[in-house]
Amino acid sequence: RGRGGPRCGFSSVYRALWRGRCRPTAMLLAPSAISFAPRPPVAARLPAGAALPKLIVFDLDNTLWTPELYQVARRVKAAPVAGRDVKLFPAAAAALHEIDTCDRWEGTQIAVASRTNQGDWARTLLDAFEVPGDPSRRLSDLVAYQEIYTGNKRAHFESLRRRSGLPFGSMLFFDDARGGRFGNCEPVARMGVLSAHCPNGLTDGVWAHAVRSYAALAADEAWMGMVVPASGGAPESPDEASASASAAAREESNGGPHDATVVRWLEGKSFGFVRRV
User: Fold this and answer.
1) pTM
2) Cβ contacts of residue 270 below 8 Å, gap of 6+?
3) What is the pLDDT along the chain (277 residues), one digit of tens a residue?
4) Backbone phi, then psi, for 108, in 5-degree steps?
5) Which residues face 113 on adjacent strands?
6) Phi, psi torsion values for 210, nearest 5 degrees
7) Distance, CA of 35 to CA of 89 (rounded, Å)
8) Cα separation of 121 and 116, whole Å?
9) CA 216, 144, 41 angle in degrees (round to 5)?
10) How far is the C-alpha of 277 from the C-alpha of 275, rounded, in Å?
């Protein structure tokens, strides 16, 4: 974990901005100069003694980084270059930095669970990206478990439970696909893992809401098999999450056609996302 010096690794520029044990720092990820905005770590603002997950599991494509590797494969034949062809989301870099440097996360491990069919590329990128704030290490040094292969992510999490020795209730999962044929959040939540939906990649809001939701559910000794919606609402059971999505789709459909712009089209999956004008 972390570099030498203060456990929270903060820049003197921001010492006067934040108080408490864990303070942020602005930094760049070589070679692409990807920056993330300084902010106080979410864990530092939780009540003393609040429970935190022992394993944070990130999807890769459109969660930790962008674009998705199947999209990159249409443009380049050689392995993509970290920071040029594929970039970390700024909030993902901030979250990784918080886990790595904030004392409240001591004892928490990081894993990745990806269904990409470009597994070699994914592992190469993990070996290439710097740990945010520590150019002497790579993301592969920070990630304790890599589950990168095609198939249902239930298999990924069964492997993570077996390898880590941790129960599903001690894990927190971030993924951009919620339900349906290609969904991950809902099937993983049914296993008992709190799963945070981040359809536009990991954001500061999704990160903070998921961490707080985990602490709140743990305090109530509640079942962790829930989906944390990207909207910031209360965690839902997987069935409620599916019902909410279906109801929203029906309501939208009953309103008749609407003008919209295509936000993202997944060529390899033959579906996409639009935003109403």
Assistant:
1) 0.79
2) none
3) 554 333 554 433 233 333 344 444 333 334 434 556 657 899 999 999 999 999 999 999 999 999 999 999 999 888 999 999 999 999 999 999 999 999 999 999 999 999 999 999 999 999 999 999 899 999 999 999 999 999 999 999 999 999 999 999 999 999 999 999 889 999 999 999 999 999 999 999 999 999 999 999 999 999 999 999 999 999 999 988 666 555 554 444 445 555 667 766 666 555 666 666 5
4) -90, 135
5) 147
6) -70, -45
7) 9
8) 9
9) 40
10) 6
Pairing of strands 109-114, 143-148: parallel
Cis-peptide into 31, omega within 30 deg: yes
d(CA 41, CA 126): 23
3-state secondary structure the chain: CCCCCCCCCCCHHHCCCCCCCCCCCCCEECCCCEECCCCCCCHHHCCCCCCCCCEEEECCECCCEECCHHHHHCCCCCCCCECCCEEECHHHHHHHHHHHHCHHHCCCEEEEEECCCCHHHHHHHHHHCEECCEEEEEHHHHEEEEEECCCCHHHHHHHHHHHHCCCHHHEEEEECCCCCCCCCHHHHHCCCCEEEECECECCHHHHHHHHHHHHHHHHCCCCCCCEECCCCCCCECHHHHHHHHHHHHHHHHHCCCCCEEEEEEECCCCEEEEEEC
Amino acid at 192: G
| 105, two tokens | 């996360």
From residue 23, how far is each of 84, 125, 239 by CA, in Å? 29, 28, 39
Cβ–Cβ under 8 Å, residues 86 and 125: yes
Packed helices 90-101 and 204-219: angle between N→C axes, nearest 10 degrees:
40
